[in-house]
C-alpha cells in the first residue's frame, strides 16, 4: 500500500470508499509526509515499543508508527473507517485496530492485554474538540503510559506548555504539568490536512512524571485550589479561594499562607508556579 501522507493517495482512498467526513468526530487527515515522519521521530518510538494510537483515521500516521514500533494498537471510534483501515494497513501484521470510544475503554486493561502491563507510548492526531478530556483520561486512568505525543490545536498546545504570568497559563497548564513535562516539538499549518482546519496545529510531547514537582502534596486538595484560583481570573487569589464553595479557607487563611511564602496578598493565581501552588496547598491544609 502506498503511503497515505500524500494528498493524491488520501483523496484516492476517500473517493474509493465514498467516505464522508463526520464533524462530530473532528476528522482532519494529515497529508504531509514530513509532518508525519516528524511526529514519529519526536515521539521517540522504537522497535521495543508498543504504541497506542487514538483516532487513526484512514491509517496515515499508523503506517509510519508500524514501521518504527514493535506493535501498534489503534483505537478508532468511526465504524465506517474500519474497512478502509483493513485495506490501508493490510501490509502491517503488527497493528491491531479496535473500534470504540477511547474515553469509555479500560486503559489499564488495554495495556495489560497488548503490552503485558508495561508502559505504552501514545501517539495521535487528536480530534481537537475533545483533546483535553482524552489527555486527562490518559493521565488519570492509572494506565502505564511513558509519553504522549499528540497533534492538537496550537492554542491548546501553548496552554499546556505555558509559563506563569501569560494569558495562556491556567488550570489546564497546571493539570498537564502535574502529570508530565510538556514541550511543543512542531508547529503545523492548516494546509497539511484534508479537510483544511480553521486553526493552526502543533505537536506536543508530554513525558509522564506524575507529581514529581509536588512531593507530599495531596492531589485532590491541590487541584481543588487550582480550579478555584482560575474560576475568576481577574480576582486576587485570596478572594478566589475565599469564595470557592468547595474550599474551607477564609481570606485570612490564604493571606497568612501567602505571607509565609513571601508573596503579596494581592497576587493572582496566574502568577504562581505549580510548585508554589503545591506549597500553598500544604500550608492551607496544615492550618486546618
Provide structural commentary.
By secondary structure, the protein is an alpha/beta fold. The protein has two domains: 7-208, Rossmann fold; 219-287, Helicase, Ruva Protein, domain 3 (Orthogonal Bundle), CATH 1.10.8. 40% of the residues lie in helices and 18% in strands. It contains twelve helices and nine strands. It has helices at 7-16, 33-43, 60-68, 82-88, 107-115, 131-140, 154-161, 171-179, 219-229, 237-243, 251-260, 274-287; strands at 29-30, 50-54, 71-76, 95-99, 120-125, 145-153, 180-188, 193-194, 201-208. A seven-stranded mixed beta sheet has the order 4-3-2-5-6-9-7, sandwiched between helices. The protein has a two-stranded antiparallel sheet with strand order 1-8. Helix 6 packs parallel to helix 8. The longest helix is centred in the last third of the chain and has 14 residues, at 274-287. The radius of gyration is 21 Å and the shape is elongated. The termini are far apart. The mean pLDDT is 95.
